[in-house]
Design a protein that fits this description.
Length: 631
């Protein structure tokens, strides 16, 4: 293959036109829209951008105002500079998603933390030196995001120099600009330089955020730890897409869970199904449900709640209860999802009194004991929820109780109002409503936030967990399809929910009768699946066999090994969630620490190190079996 720089310096016109024709044939198979754009470029039909190529210069012309995108005779020098050692190049940014190689608190993760900490101890004793640095193999790049190709010569230089990408996401804001890049980039060769099914190309827009979620989720650990980013140029559209990608990257770092949390939920569920009615067959009511969270905008909507409390059913979520009680607003149902052992004390402090409570089956049994009326539901994403045979499973209930309140509301009503559900930080305001359980809070924005579209306010910021919550609301709207969702909260915009300040609810409703209709959807006598312990042991045997029989001698093979295990975890969490979810979170954390430890090794020969550290994962799996048998 002829070097792109040699060809361009020699002004080899035949070379670039052959490459364009090769790309035309390539995209005719995979994407006809791109193929048509390439064909228009060849025929000189472009209206916005065109290639300038002669003995005096190589450039891209903006046809709308007749200017060059590059200074004269600079395009090759700029491309060479961008392509020079991307991991140590100021044109590129490297992210670690706030990951650090540190010990984990054993208090809440008694088993997982024990084995992670053994890995960390070994790394500090045998791998890290006084000046620890991550070492990737030569010509190997981690997951990389490129925003704007600007002709893409730099990308072809990387290909010609032998670089490989673990995964690659490219965004080009205009299809004509992308077609011009086809003069220079060998796209068939590019796809061969990226791991299988890991090269994502977006042109003009990213219409579905789920594509981004899939990009990061498909390599949950390896796409989470290291991220390489290049913004070849800046524009409003590129800035928007860059923020979307960054938000998805941050969200991917959250919601992994742990074996210890799941096993608490299993123990609690076994107790709760014996004494409480569980949601089996939800039916729609003829009334609006208002889902109330304790975000800062709740303060501004107290008057709305007070005025309309007799015209709708109110679901109070978590710590919103105390605030609603203070303002004498009648709560029809209190919603809870947390496994924490002090939740009962929090509810006593908030004066639960005679308010019926609907809580996830994983909550501590004491919560149900203090309630005059207690009902449970299977919360999707919890392993224990899939251990029952005949109860409904409510999805999109994490990461916050407001998400659960909304998903529950979707089971019972087609008109829902979101109040105090801010999904972010509002500049100048505390994280929660005043007089909440959390007391006095700072109004200073955390350091790791990023700006997002506000529902009404322009100064709204998010972080990884708020972003995950917002995405969960949006997915719930898509899945459950309520007729109308109104968002009177002041925080982040939620796609599918109509931002509105004032809602005119016409008439009072018979709240006692409608509440009774909701309660009738819950009943006793739920059955458990059989042979759960045997199935878990069999699954762990499969994992141990996969780990023990993996030949990992280089860091490139390490990335592939981790992706392989992650795919196995994902597959089992989808097909057999009762034990797949039970293990997935902790194993993801173990794999991330395995990757982190071994990337500090100065050598690319990691055979013995991998053997020692992967044995810690085997030991952890054995401990999980013992712990489950004690439930």
């Amino acid at each position: 293959m002829q070097d792109i720089l040699v060809s361009l310096k020699n002004r080899d016109e035949k070379f670039i036109f052959k490459r364009m024709l090769d790309n035309l044939e390539f995209f005719r198979v995979y994407n006809k829209k791109i193929a048509n754009a390439i064909n228009d470029t060849i025929q000189g039909k472009n209206k916005k951008y065109q290639l300038f190529f002669d003995s005096s210069d190589i450039n891209i012309i903006d046809l709308r105002n007749n200017v060059f995108l590059y200074p004269k005779n600079s395009i090759l020098d700029i491309a060479q500079n961008i392509a020079s050692n991307p991991l140590n190049n100021p044109s590129w940014k490297v992210y670690l998603n706030n990951a650090k190689l540190v010990k984990v608190d054993v208090k809440n993760l008694t088993i997982t933390a024990k084995y992670i900490n053994r890995m960390v101890d070994y790394a500090y004793s045998n791998i890290l030196d006084s000046n620890p640095m991550l070492h990737l193999p030569q010509f190997f790049l981690p997951q990389s995001n490129i925003f704007g190709l600007c002709g893409g010569i730099f990308l072809q230089i990387l290909i010609d120099n032998g670089y490989k990408f673990h995964s690659l996401l490219i965004f080009e804001e205009d299809v004509e600009l992308f077609s011009i890049a086809c003069y220079f980039i060998d796209f068939k060769a590019l796809f061969e330089c990226v791991s299988d099914r890991s090269c994502y190309i977006f042109i003009e827009d990213i219409k579905m955020r789920s594509f981004l979620s899939h990009y990061f989720y498909s390599k949950r650990v390896t796409n989470n730890l290291l991220r390489l980013e290049l913004s070849a140029f800046i524009s409003p559209k590129i800035s928007k897409i860059r923020n979307m990608v960054f938000e998805s990257y941050k969200s991917n770092a959250r919601g992994w869970g742990s074996f210890e949390d799941e096993i608490i939920g299993v123990r609690n569920m076994f107790k709760n199904i014996k004494s409480s009615k569980i949601l089996k067959s939800p039916k729609k009511i003829d009334a609006t449900i208002c889902v109330v969270g304790s975000g800062p905008s709740l303060d501004e909507n107290i008057s709305f709640l007070s005025k309309n409390q007799d015209k709708m059913i109110i679901f109070s979520c978590g710590t919103a209860l105390k605030i609603l009680r203070k303002h004498k607003i009648k709560v029809d149902f209190q919603i809870e999802i947390e496994r924490i052992d002090y939740l009962a004390d929090v509810l006593c402090d908030a004066k639960l009194q005679d308010t019926p409570i609907i809580c996830a089956s994983v909550v501590n049994n004491e919560v149900l004991n203090i309630a005059n009326e207690g009902y449970i539901f299977n919360r999707g994403g919890s392993a224990s929820s899939y251990m029952t045979l005949d109860a409904s499973i409510i999805e999109f209930c994490a990461p916050f109780v407001g998400n659960a309140g909304f998903s529950l509301a979707c089971q019972f009503s087609d008109q829902i109002i979101l109040c105090g559900i801010d999904c972010g930080f509002i500049k100048g305001k505390s994280k929660h409503s005043s007089d909440s359980f959390y007391g006095e809070e700072s109004v200073e924005l955390p350091h790791d936030v990023f700006k997002v579209r506000g529902n009404f306010d322009n100064d709204v910021y998010s972080d990884s967990i708020f972003s995950l919550s917002k995405e969960s609301f949006e997915l719930a709207i898509i899945k459950y399809k309520p007729h109308a969702v109104y968002n009177i909260s002041n925080g982040a915009y939620i796609k599918g929910a109509l931002p509105i300040k004032n809602i005119d609810l016409k008439k009072d409703i018979n709240k006692d009768m409608i509440s009774q209709q909701i309660k009738q959807c819950f009943s006793y006598n739920v059955r458990l699946k059989e042979d759960l312990s045997v199935k878990l042991e069999n699954y762990i045997d499969v994992l141990k066999h996969r780990i023990l029989n993996s030949n990992v001698s280089t860091k490139q093979e390490l990335f592939c090994f981790i992706d392989d295990i992650c795919q196995l975890l994902s597959k089992n969490s989808a097909s057999n969630p009762e034990y797949g979810i039970l293990l997935e979170g902790s194993i993801l954390h173990l794999l991330q620490n395995l990757l982190f430890c071994l990337l500090y090794a100065k050598t690319n020969n990691i055979t013995s190190l991998f053997s020692i550290l992967s044995n810690e994962i085997i030991g952890c799996l054995n401990s999980f079996i013992s712990e489950y048998k004690s439930v």
